[in-house]
Design goal:
about 425 residues, alpha/beta, FAD/NAD(P)-binding domain, 3 domains, five-stranded parallel beta sheet, 27 strands, globular, binds flavin-adenine dinucleotide
């Protein structure tokens, strides 16, 4: 295109949230010279900029930080290491050859990168995704949007609210709305267990006497201009509303916390394989996608429970990207990959493949709550990692470091759950 500027980067990181910032700083520390972060918002830090409550960084720093404080530490680390952070810069296109098209204050630009790190975070499922019947009045928000209005725009979104779905952001918003003087009537959850972390159920609902209605769903939203009434019903084991159990709640606000979806339009555009289990790219133990030189981390790879784990994972992606530039495409493309299979009760495992001889970190989620279990990572007869868990829930990500690498002759690695 005429007048278009083309520039080179060793590593281009798409997304300047905690994942992108940690990945970029780690890539620089591992020797990559020109490291670029492309962030569409005016401020780097990602979604943490609107998470003003504390509790971030307990694993990483042993401190309870607010979201902006936690993000600020990684922003400073990236800046100190000389990362070029370009805000208000949206990445519009990505090719398998690692060419990016961006739009920002400098106009349209094309970047040619030695390696690319996908760190675009996730987006929220909306009312359309769960198909709640009824009218379309104002007053229905996703939890993240509600959080943005309250915490970034200083705007109150309503006075009597019902929260639909018990994901972490919804639980946090139940408490936040209460602290701002709204009445939160209940959190309605279709499953027999909460979608969010146990600590959030206690600190955000129980401490404020907000009821959690498990096995319930919203069957109707009514209202002329603004939400006026919401009908809630119990569900059977198949998730269908049970006739005769309906209860009508008068309220003006519905907050949806019904799931997060990894943001991967650019990964798809570049032709990366996407997992139907995670919604993120299929990666190996180096967090490299099916496209050589393109890596993924953070919520764009799979939705995390704690940002501390996002940062650690992103550092692996940054180090891998720097190593990729050093080794070159050819050296990496020849590697044999060992598939990892999730056993019964395991919803997904990341990464999807291991390189023989590499000692990787494995993240997984279980399908349903269970207690007194042992998780083993096995390669044939060898146990590569094992740990006992008094309790496992889908809300909490499990992380296991392999104590020895998979032997070269391994066909598959399996992740198994057994009674303890
Ligand atoms: C609404 C919400 C609230 C949350 N609250 C909590 C909480 O209270 N506690 C907790 O532990 N965790 C919380 N989380 C989880 C938290 O998001 C993650 O732990 C962490 O922020 C994920 O980091 P990330 O960098 O992967 O994604 P994000 O923080 O989402 O950062 C992704 C960044 O990529 C940018 N981006 C995306 N696409 C492009 C593009 N094409 N071009 C340029 N930039 C792009 C976005 O603008 C964003 O800044 C919350 C998540 C959400 C969605």
């Amino acid at each position: 295109m005429r007048g278009e500027k083309i520039f080179r980067a060793d590593v281009a990181v798409i997304g300047g949230g905690p994942a992108g910032l940690a990945a970029a700083a780690a890539a620089r520390a591992a020797g990559a010279e020109r490291v670029l972060v492309l962030e569409r918002e005016p401020l780097a830090g990602g979604i943490l900029n609107q998470c003003i409550h504390d509790g971030f960084g307990l694993v990483r720093f042993g401190e309870a930080l607010t979201g902006p404080e936690y993000a600020g530490r990684f922003l400073r680390a990236a800046e100190e290491r000389g990362v070029d952070i370009r805000t208000r810069t949206m990445t519009l296109e990505l090719t398998a050859e690692r060419r990016l098209r961006t739009l920002g204050p400098r106009g349209y630009e094309t970047a040619e990168a030695g390696a690319v790190i996908l760190a675009m975070g996730c987006r929220e499922r909306t009312r359309g995704a769960i198909q709640i019947p009824g009218a379309r009045p104002a007053g229905v928000f996703t939890a993240g949007v509600a959080q943005y209005y309250l915490n970034r725009q200083n705007m109150m979104i309503g006075r009597r609210a019902l929260i639909v779905g018990s994901g972490d952001v919804g639980l946090i918003m139940a408490r936040r709305l209460t602290l701002e003087g709204a009445r939160v009537l209940a959190v309605v959850e279709k499953l027999p267990y909460a979608g969010g972390l146990a600590r959030n159920v206690v600190q955000c609902l129980e401490d404020y006497d907000i009821p959690l209605l498990l096995n319930h769903t919203v069957t109707r939203i009514e209202g002329e201009r603004r939400v006026e009434r919401v009908t809630v019903a119990r569900v059977d084991e198949a998730g269908r509303a049970v006739p005769g159990t309906e209860r009508v709640w008068a309220c003006d606000t519905v907050v949806l916390s019904v799931g997060l979806i990894p943001e991967n339009e650019l990964a798809l555009q570049a032709g990366a394989e996407i997992s139907p289990l995670t919604g993120g790219a299929v990666v190996n133990g180096d967090l490299q996608t099916s496209i050589p030189g393109v890596f993924a981390c953070g919520n764009a790879l799979h939705v995390h429970d704690l940002v501390d784990h996002v940062s650690a994972e992103a550092e692996t992606a940054g180090q891998s990207a720097a190593a990729f530039i050093r080794a070159g495409t050819a050296a990496r493309a020849e590697d044999r990959l060992i598939p990892i299979r999730p056993g019964a009760g395991v919803r997904y495992v990341v990464p999807f493949f291991l390189r023989p001889g590499a000692r990787s970190l494995i993240s997984l989620r279980v399908k349903e709550p269970m207690s007194r279990r042992r998780i083993e990572v096995r390669a044939g007869g060898r146990v590569l990692a094992a740990r006992k868990f008094p309790r496992l829930t889908p809300a909490e990500m499990v992380r296991l470091t392999l104590r020895e690498p998979a032997p070269p002759e391994t066909e598959t690695v399996e992740v198994m759950i057994s009674d303890d």
